[in-house]
Write a structure and sequence with these properties.
alpha+beta, 11 helices, Magnesium transport protein CorA, 7-stranded mixed β-sheet, Methane Monooxygenase Hydroxylase, Chain G, domain 1
């Protein structure tokens, strides 16, 4: 008589004992998702990382994709023992604050990408943040992909769902997942640069528009945020180039062409960021020149009014000396005539300065 599967035996024993079979334990909080993919299709059911890799290696086909969010050292060390991750790469993934890079440890690739998110601000201040950055690490092996995300943004749920609707792409293996992640990150770069371009266009219009005031500090703040974006974008060019040129046999030829497309998009982003830096430098110079011109205009106005006021002051000072032998001192109309002279002198100076656009 054929034996029943062990699962049915457990269920029957639980029914006889009056108890229900225990539900599978929920995944730890730091595990965002854990899926097994065979022939480009995700297998149903929830598994731990150990059960997932055992399933793949028992079948001899497919791969595991595990997504983690800010795990600590002890949590990541547990996966490192199961998947054979290098301790240096694990340390980088735990502590983050890495530059974009690509490294190979034995049969495992370790890639670091910087994620960015645009934050809209009505007015820039010293504490304003326009570009919020995070980090994304990926361990890629023959039959697994482990992603470690730091930061509150740049979720990979959309990437996973898109890839799951394209089994032909997932059939290419873990390298296809790495491409999907890199493509998603670079696409967010494009979105952020478009938003920053709009902000810079507004700044440029404000700088060169007449009778508008814009502080140079606002442009410096924008320049600082562009530098953060530059540090995220520029170092990624070399890792993508290496993946596109066949840096490792874990990336098949079919996937390399996709990486070349991502590299082209990154080149577009890099050119935009470089143009932002140059344009902001020009805007800073223009703003400082505009401030200097405004200060010169203000000084001319002040000088003109000082000249106008000094004329009656000089006349009053002379006639305030109280000497007996001064012209027109004892004349009946001396006082009103003196006031009239002061007024005419002030009006004459005012017209002269007004004609010369000092006032």
């Amino acid at each position: 008589m054929p034996s029943l599967p062990s699962l049915n035996l457990r269920n029957r024993a639980a029914r006889h004992s009056g108890r229900t079979a225990p539900a599978p334990a929920p995944p730890p909080a730091y595990v965002v998702d854990c899926g097994v993919y065979v022939d480009g299709v995700r297998l149903p059911g929830d598994r731990s990382h150990a059960e997932a890799i055992d399933e793949v290696r028992r079948r001899g086909a497919g791969f595991v994709w595990i997504g983690l969010h800010e795990p600590d050292e002890a949590q990541l060390n547990g996966l490192a023992e199961t998947f054979g991750l290098h301790e240096l790469a694990v340390e980088d993934a735990v502590h983050a604050h890495q530059r974009p890079k690509l490294e190979r440890y034995d049969s495992t690739l370790f890639m670091v990408l910087k994620t960015v998110r645009y934050i809209a601000n009505e007015r820039l201040t010293a504490t304003s943040e326009i570009v919020e950055t995070g980090e994304l690490m990926a361990f890629v092996g023959r039959d697994f992909v482990i992603t470690v995300r730091h930061g509150k943004h740049a979720s990979l749920a959309q990437v996973r769902s898109q890839l799951e609707t394209d089994p032909e792409q997932l059939q290419l293996g873990p390298a296809a997942v790495l491409h999907g992640i890199a493509d998603h990150v670079v696409d967010t770069y494009l979105e952020v640069t478009e938003a920053i371009q709009d902000d810079i266009d507004e700044m440029e219009a404000a700088v060169f528009a007449p009778r508008t005031k814009i502080e140079a500090e606002q442009i410096y703040l924008m320049k600082r945020e562009v530098m953060d974006l530059r540090r995220a974008v520029m170092p990624l060019a070399k890792p993508l180039q290496r993946l596109a040129e066949g840096y490792t046999p874990m990336v098949p030829e079919e996937v390399r062409s996709y990486f070349r497309n991502v590299e082209d998009h990154l080149t577009t982003v890099s050119e935009r960021v470089a143009s932002f830096d140059e344009l902001l430098t020009t805007l800073v110079d223009a703003t400082l020149a505009k401030i200097t011109l405004q200060q010169n205009t203000d000084m001319r106005k002040i000088s003109a009014w000082v000249a106008i006021v000094s004329t009656p002051t000089m006349i009053a000072g002379i006639y305030g000396m109280n000497f007996d032998n001064m012209p027109e001192v004892h004349w009946t109309f001396g006082y009103p005539v003196t006031l009239l002279v002061m007024l005419l002198a002030c009006l004459t100076l005012f017209k002269i300065f007004r004609r010369n656009k000092w006032l």
